Amino acid sequence: MGQALWRLPPRQQQRLQEELADQLTERGAGRDGGSSQRRTPQQCYGPDIYHLLKTCRGGKAQHGFIDLEMLPPELGITILSYLNATDLCLAGCVWQDLGQDEYLWQGLCKSTWGHCSIYNKRLPAGFSYRRLYLQLDEGSLTFNANPLEGISYFMSKGILVDHPKELAKFIFYTRRLNWKMLRIYLDERRDVLDELVTLHNFTNQFLPNALRDFFRHIHAPEERGEYLETLITKFSHRFCTCNPGLVRDLGLSPDAVYVLCYSLILLSIDLTSPHVKNKMSKREFIRNTRRAAHNVSDDFVGHLYDNIYLIGHVAA
């Protein structure tokens, strides 16, 4: 938006420049005994914001935060767009029209909850993004206490529809959901879990980095069990689907990727846990992994070890 917000219509720009020139002439006349003549302002793309505010205030320089109502509306909205919801509510107490602007609240909704079914619907008359933000916040808090009640709340308000793909997109693009409650919900709704896995794109990603990205959205359980096995199985198939060339060149398969993922998790625990004194060496990791995954080369397994050693846990 940059310079476009600072520009005014030509006539208004010329009038402001003339006012600035008159004020400069009066100042010069006061210093030089009235001998100065009116100076023509230099041509510019738009008036300086400092002089613009100074002109609006009657030529008196004031210190402190500027009054946003004295700025062009587009610039005031741009400044307020950097605030969070709490600060925006406080700003609305001072600048009521700007603080309640629908574009600001729409931006807050979509930046916090990236996908909702209501975004793609025709909005009814009198719809308010500010009210929608409060409903989304209330629903997220409800979800973090009880996942099923939270999803039911979203559906009752028309924010979400009961479809696995829509629910998966909502979870994928939202960062306010508690990962423990999310794990409980996905364990019960495997259809949503399947759609959530397909939203990941692991094309041209190194296996440990792809696994980290996967566990960043779908947190791994604290203990080994059926749910962890399900996650790794789904990840292995998705990784092979996204990288057919790599699978062909390295001779990988979903089963081989499954074994490598478990090896990476165990190696991560071994290298990062303070309770393990004798850390696994690179040679030991290659030897142990090759016993389970025969088609994988020593160089590839060695690069896996280096990645965990340098970057850290894959499921942290």
Briefly say what this structure is.
Helix content is 63%, strand content 0%.
Structure overview:
The chain is mainly alpha-helical and 316 residues long. It has a domain at 200-315: Arf Nucleotide-binding Site Opener,domain 2 (Arf Nucleotide-binding Site Opener, domain 2). The chain contains 17 helices and no strands. Helix 6 runs parallel beside helix 7. The protein is elongated.
List keywords for this structure.
F-box only protein 8, 316 residues, elongated, Arf Nucleotide-binding Site Opener, domain 2, guanyl-nucleotide exchange factor activity, FBXO8_F-box, F-box-like_dom_sf, 17 helices, single chain, mainly alpha, disordered N terminus
SSE arrangement:
Layout: H1 10-32, H2 49-56, H3 73-80, H4 85-94, H5 96-99, H6 102-112, H7 129-145, H8 147-156, H9 164-172, H10 179-188, H11 190-198, H12 207-217, H13 226-242, H14 244-250, H15 254-272, H16 282-292, H17 298-311
Helix pairs in contact: 6-7, 7-8, 9-11, 13-15, 15-17, 16-17
Q: What is the CATH homologous superfamily assignment of the domain at 200-315?
A: Arf Nucleotide-binding Site Opener,domain 2
Figure out the total of helices: 17
Helix content: 55-70%
| Amino- and carboxy-terminal Cα gap | 39 Å
CATH class of the domain at 200-315: Mainly Alpha
* CATH fold name of the domain at 200-315: Arf Nucleotide-binding Site Opener, domain 2
| CATH-defined architecture of the domain at 200-315 | Orthogonal Bundle
Shape call: elongated
The parts where pLDDT drops under 50 for at least 5 residues are 1-8, 38-47
What fraction of the residues are assigned to beta strands by DSSP? under 5%
Structural class: mainly alpha
Order of helices and strands: HHHHHHHHHHHHHHHHH
What is the mean pLDDT?
82
Our Rg estimate from Cα atoms comes to 30 Å
The biggest beta sheet is recorded as: none
According to DSSP, the number of beta strands is: 0
Domain SEC7: 135-311
Organism: Austrofundulus limnaeus
Protein name: F-box only protein 8
InterPro entries: F-box-like_dom_sf (IPR036047), F-box_dom (IPR001810), FBXO8_F-box (IPR048003), Sec7_C_sf (IPR023394), Sec7_dom (IPR000904), Sec7_dom_sf (IPR035999)
